[in-house]
Design a protein that fits this description.
35% helix, five-stranded mixed sheet, Rossmann fold, CHAT_dom, 462 residues, CHAT domain-containing protein, globular, single chain
């Protein structure tokens, strides 16, 4: 079969071994009112941080107080969007620093938390490193108008596989100068290697991995993750040794475009890790729950369309074979008991630029109950997704944290060290319609940010 031959092809790709970490108390979500039958987008005024109060707090040099305000406000944003209450404890800035220091001792990876808060007149940056010494930088050149224009130019260049570096690098460098450069001396002095971004509106759908300092992409210097709020983060790292994967997906759909690489994606992943794979008619919510009740799967891989649309959480969904699972019903997947270490959505597509869709993306891990999620901001080519996913799972076996496993995978693609090989034509695959798109991309240059910058760890990076 085509899937069998393609599995052989994937195994011929250049790969490097890697691992991840994670385990702890799952976040619980409880609905506080019934879901409306007709999706109605929340007024954006409900979702806004009190920027005047924030500026006054920062002008008093009360960075810890400002962090508390942001944590409370952004937690409320996600509760409004997901129509539920997240039962988590609000952490102080001191407690956040203590947590980062504890995890650094456990993992050997030093992470810093960066709040990036756009305002009409400037950009506020708040840094919490493991030693707890808070920093604040105000970037007056990054007005909301300039920031929005720059983000739009950056995104439009990166999401186009045919674009030239000149189409996205100027904006990538400007964003690096505004968001990373003001903090870089502190990051270097403390030997930070992992960044945790807590991003404000308009920035939650930005492909941070492709920020550029003039010589290197951000991903060449740091591994990173994005989070909705630190108080919503499951902070407990653990090793994935012995964890099994439940890989499920669909290659054909009634109302969506086909995903021809899904059969080989599922087969290969379930071979790389001990686990199971279920395709098409077997890709149902009932089957997922049945297999989760029979055996503990710490990794859940869903190779299917996941659409994060404008409007309420009910407008967005993950497409199973027999039904869409709406974003506000993600907890129906039951990933919080036993807690899933990583939920992977390999064909996720976000309405970039829409604030509600970006809220949905940033809150995927929290809402699902999983410790973390790996998802894409835009739909990447089938071949590119296959290459990235197979390499990621290889590296997940030995990397110190899962964010580093993703970074190593993205670097391999950036440097042209892994791609589908010419041997794709072996075994008569070329005659199979299911493999035509993969064969066309057999020698594609996957170094363009379009192929690797879309994928992001959301939630616990450890």
């Amino acid at each position: 079969m085509a899937a069998s031959a393609l599995t052989t092809l994937v195994q011929e790709m250049t790969v490097v071994q890697g691992t991840t970490i994670a385990q702890g108390t799952p976040l619980q979500v409880s609905p506080d009112r019934p879901t409306p039958e007709v999706p109605v987008a929340k007024p954006l005024s409900v979702l806004k941080l009190d920027l005047k109060k924030l500026q006054e707090t920062l002008d008093r040099n009360d960075i810890a107080g400002a962090i508390q305000d942001v944590e409370v406000s952004w937690k409320q944003q996600y509760e409004n969007y997901y129509q539920g209450k997240f039962t988590t404890r609000l952490l102080s800035a001191d407690q956040i620093g203590y947590s980062l220091n504890r995890v650094a001792q456990l993992t050997g990876k030093k992470a810093a938390l960066i709040y990036v808060i756009p305002t009409p007149e400037h950009l506020e940056l708040l840094l919490v490193p493991p030693d707890g010494q808070l920093s604040h930088r105000r970037v007056t050149a990054a007005t909301r108008t300039r920031l929005t224009e720059t983000v739009k130019a950056f995104r439009s260049g990166v999401v186009n596989a045919g674009s030239q570096p000149s189409d996205y690098l100027p904006a990538a460098q400007q964003l690096y100068q505004w968001i990373i450069s003001p903090l870089e001396a502190t990051l270097k002095a403390q030997q930070i290697d992992t960044l945790i971004f807590c991003l404000g509106g308009g920035l939650r759908g930005v492909p941070i991995a492709a920020f550029h300092d003039g010589q290197h992409f951000l991903i060449e210097r740091y591994s990173f993750a994005t989070i909705p709020a630190f108080s919503l983060l499951d902070q407990h790292p653990s090793r994935l040794a012995g964890t099994k994967v439940l890989a499920m997906g669909a290659s054909q759909f009634q109302n969506e475009s086909p995903l021809p690489a899904v059969p080989v994606e599922l087969t290969t992943i379930s071979q790389l890790w001990q686990g199971e794979s279920w395709l098409n008619q077997d890709f149902t919510l009932a089957k997922l729950k049945d297999r989760r009740s029979a055996s503990s799967f710490g990794l859940i891989h869903l190779a299917t369309h996941a659409i994060l649309a404008p409007g309420t959480a009910e407008a967005s969904y993950i497409q199973f074979w027999d039904q869409p699972i709406r974003l506000n019903r993600l907890r129906d997947l039951g990933l919080n008991f036993p807690v899933v270490q990583l939920l992977v959505l390999s064909a996720c597509q976000t309405a970039l630029g829409d604030p509600n869709a970006e809220l949905g993306f940033a809150g995927l891990a929290v809402q699902s109950g999983a410790k973390a999620a790996l998802a894409s901001l835009w739909s990447v080519s089938d071949a590119g997704t296959l290459v990235l996913m197979v390499n990621f799972y290889q590296r997940l076996k030995a990397a110190p944290i899962k964010a580093e496993a993703l970074r190593q995978t993205q670097l391999a693609m950036l440097r042209g060290q892994t791609r589908l090989q010419k041997s794709a034509a072996k075994g008569g695959i070329a005659q199979r319609a299911v493999a035509s798109e993969l064969l066309a991309a057999a020698n594609a240059d996957l170094s363009h940010p379009y192929y690797w910058a879309s994928f992001t760890i959301i939630g616990n990076p450890w």
